[in-house]
Amino acid sequence: MKIELNSGIQVGMRLLPLLLQTIILLAAQAGLISEAAAAPVKNLATHPLYSTYKFEKDGRHIYFGSQPIRAPEGVICEVMKRDPILRKNLQKLGMEIVFYPFFKGPDSNFFMLREQIDIAISGDMPVLTITSAEKTIITAIAKLGSTSIVTRKFYGDIRDLKGKRIGFPQGTTAELAILSALAAAGMQESDIRSIPMEVNDLIRALENKRIDAFSAWEPVSSEALSLHKDFTAIHRLLNSSYLYQTRQFAHKHPEASLQIHASFARALHWMSSSNKNLELAAKWSLQAAEKLTGRKSSLTVEQLVRVTAEGIALIARIPTIPQSDFKQDGFLGKSFDFLKKQGKIPAESSWEKIRLSMDNKNIKSVLADPEKYQLDNFYPERD
Amino acid sequence: MKTRPQNASFIKLPGTIRWKLQALVGFGATLLFFSVFLTSQFGLPFGIFEGNYQRLENEAMSRLNSFADSEKILISMWVNERLADLRFSSQNPHFQSHLPQLTATAKQEDKIAAILDELTEWFLLARKSYNYEDVELINARTGINLFSSHEEYQGKKSMLFDSLFADGRDWDEKVFFHNNDNSSSICLAYRIPAPVSKDSTAKDGLVMLYRIKTEQFIDEVLRYSDVLGLSGEIELIDLHQTLLTPLKYKLPDGTAARPFEYHLATKPAEFASWGIDGVQKALDYRGVPVVAVTRNLRITPDFGLGIIVKQDEADIFSSLKNSIIYTTSITVIGIIFLLTLLFFVTRRLLKPLERLSSTVKRIKQGDLSARAEVCGSDETGMLSAAFNEMAEEIYRWHQEFEVAVQERTAVLGKFSEVVEQSPVSIVITDILGNIEFINPKFSELAGYSMEEVLGRNPRLLKSGNTPPETYRELWETISSGHIWEGELANRKKSGEIFWEHAKISPIKNSNGVITGYVGIKENITEKRQMEAQLLQSQKMEAMGTLAGGIAHDFNNILTVISGYGTMLKMKLAQDTSSVAMIDEILAAESRAEVMTRSLLAFSRKEEIRLAPVDLVEILRGLEKSLSRLIREDIEFKIELPTGSLPVMADKGQLEQLIVNLVVNARDAMPSGGLLSLSITDRYLICDISPDKLPEQGRYAVITVADTGIGMDKQTRERIFDPFFTTKAVGKGTGLGLSMADSIVKKHGGSIYLRSEPGEGTTFKISLPLLEQPLKRSADADTLAFIPGSETILLVEDEPAIRKILTTFLAEMGYSVLTAENGAEGVETFRANRDEINLILSDVIMPKKNGKEMYQEICRIKADVPIVFMSGYTADILNDYEFNGRNFLLKPIQPSTLLEKIREVLEGENAARIV
Description:
By secondary structure, chain A is α/β, with parallel strands linked by helices. Chain A has helices at 2-29, 32-38, 73-81, 84-92, 105-113, 124-131, 173-184, 202-207, 220-227, 247-252, 254-273, 275-293, 301-312, 331-341, 351-356, 361-368; strands at residues 61-66, 96-101, 119-123, 136-152, 165-168, 193-196, 213-217, 231-246.
């Protein structure tokens, strides 16, 4: 009885955050939290959703930052959440992993800088931003896709948006896309009216003409284009996402880190091995996004499958960081230089520090021993 | 009348109406044409209207975007097809069945050769079908080329092995460019893992590779099309901006860019390699403005391409340029035509106006007789007629105006001359008192020029000698619109004070408003000096009258004293001590007599009475009195000769002369100095003064010299003028030296002056010396009293005189009849006409004076001897001829009286009445 009671308490304790999360998501659905989330919150620890997250630094819990409204990153995380091998191997280490959803990369970075989130997947700009602080290391690539500026067909070019309202999630790759578009057109950031918004509000804001354009990653841009024939993408920027972890976590729990990287590789292999697997993962991802945003996504499973497939097409089998990303004239290096020039990354940051913070060791180890890490012998748990 | 402001906000177009019309129409038409044209070309802001420029740009961007997208798809498909082909080939059952042997680590070269023989045909077929440069099968561990469509490479280490595994990153598909000296190729590789076994590792396996020439790749994927226009170009770069395709144009330095070597450093290349799918307007590698569309194509994580599709802006907008040229040309021609037409129309319409304008110009130049030609009865004809009427009226006005102007000019000229030549100074000020005009007399008097006083206040003339109340009253009067009249003490620019009689009146305009003030001022400085001097003279006159009266009475008293003293001395002749005391009394009486004479001389009431006098004695007698006149800071030095210098002179006036000169010398030394007085005896050939030539002879020269301030030439020339003085008003009469000159002349002498500013002044007076030495009058001690026995009628109103003279004459043996006044004297004479031998009469008496009495007595008995006596005779005896010998001046010395009586009685000098 005692044991059962303890187990009950433990289960209750585990379910409590989930319960709170559900309540908040319901409130968000009623439009309460969405507005609050849209407002810039300096201290995210008081965020209506994030304040419900519990971070127990007991050496047993590993906290993973995921982004359900992001493809394929969100899809990958949903598969990882269902990875029994990972759970089992972590249990062997006396540990367990907890996935906390975030609206965007800078939000999970906030908690990562506080060493509460241990490992996460985010887009290039948040990854560069946090890595410049030298507290994290980049360990694998999770996506090679694009970020788009979506507007009405009335506007044919970024120059037509001079003085117009453009919404985007601040500090993300979406902001990088806007800055790159402005730079390409010879314009300044001050030439447009920047409207910082949460990613889940962008489409509705453009529909309601509260904004004239938005910048977003997949699947948001694809969702918008599929919803409205009047919408068009006038600018695209290559966009990549990465798996990255705190240096402290990597140092303290190398084996756990290795197991998480194995799970990451397993998820990619599993997703890329068949369309059916992708469809299943996409369904999980849509459910997770719905939980987070509080509303049903207008994106279909097929659309999300297509976006996810495109995002992982080049990296699914071998998600090691591309060699060109180690070079300053590669994509990541150019993005770093550009963000530094725009003042989004501290001027004292150097590319060399970023380069030295990229480490393929874990993912290479996993790929080098597919048998051991069961890369092609993996079946995620069904709901 | 209000006038239009000079800077009225009217747009003033220069030139005639014709030119204005032409300019306005020309400018307006041009503006209209170009507005419409520019709108059509460049549209309107805020998306109201899209012009050709925007349309062309949008079309170009759309075209380039479509082209770039199709290129991206084409390249992507091309690569993916080959990669799929590789994957498909690797799945070939025959190949798969021999995979263990092919990937075996042990050397099984014979078996491999046999297997490859079977595969060779298939490889060669694949190569031929797609026109590949080479198809290779490479052992992933050893790098040995198991098969190559080029036999010479078989069995050798592949030259591409390093490129495949150099970066150490795992891969399953790989695409890369291989470049050597001869050619470049695009290589696509597929990794075939070795079958899983206990001996195999991840590195084991095969690599199947297609090598295709870059030129072929480019030929197959790059499709130049007419839609890119003449200048359109497609550029392919890798992720590091290395150029992969030849460029259409040469570089600015004239060389051709070499693919795989040239770094394309354009802005579109930078964005394309970064990963941007977008549009830019930028400069290309030639520096030419282009519209560029960029696409980024990632084929593998490490291999990607940048696609740049661009077209020159000039090419895009060439139709616009042509349109501008055509439209502008047509517009210019149209405007020229319009202006020409306008020129002729306006010329015809405006000709009458031009003629009218010409007439106006003639009138403006002074030809008031000019008239406009009246053509027709239209508006311009009516205008010309009306203008002619106006010109006629102006002509008439002009004539009248000319006459009026001439009259006014003449009057103004007179006024101007009056003001300019006015003997009084005129000053005109504004309402605040600031000087606007002064006439020459003002400048002459005050010493200020027009430029010096313009804009300044007349208070610059204030001397401080006019009371403030006067100025206050002045301003109150004139500011209330009235005329003020009064006298002001002002100061010249030189500092000299002068007096003005001023009349200051306000100047009012036609509305009665005061606009300024005019002051007319007369210099009354001399007048005021004259008045002061006249007042002084009147004072002197009154003083003289008073002094004469006093002297008269005083002489009577002295006569009594002298008489009784003399009688007492005669009686007490033996009493030495008494005689001494009586002498003291008589000496005192003598001094009093001198004082009386001085008093009379001061009052100038005494007639000149020339008598031989010793000049030395006179000066010696004056020495004490003069010393008292000199201040202590002045050293007084007198030099007199030991002998006598006899001259014919009036002692009193001579004394007055010397006193005047000494006082002047004293006043000329305000800070002290030396005053010297001397007499010398000179024989002069001519006078001491060059312009005066008296007779030759001996003269006594009196010199009065000081070391004072001296005189300038102007002062010297006027020094003997009556009432001229350099002393302050009230300090001097201005008569001193004038009288001195007069006195000297009456004495037959002359006066000479030598003076320079700062060098003192010297007066020299020359008086002719008598040839005969002076006959000394008898000393009182030795004086003989001559007795007589005749009868004398004594007429004297002063009882004391009458008594003493009666007593004295009786003592001397004379019979004395007395009368108290002239009337009584007449009666007494009438009653005793035969007994009376001589009449001794006072001059001034009640009832009848001495002169009237004697005239009446003479009518009773002619030639009766008479001796007049008086302390003051000038007023009464002027009309009579007297030589002075029948006149005794009081106080009378007894001896003198007796001597005079004897002279008259003995008939030597009988008086005559003319």
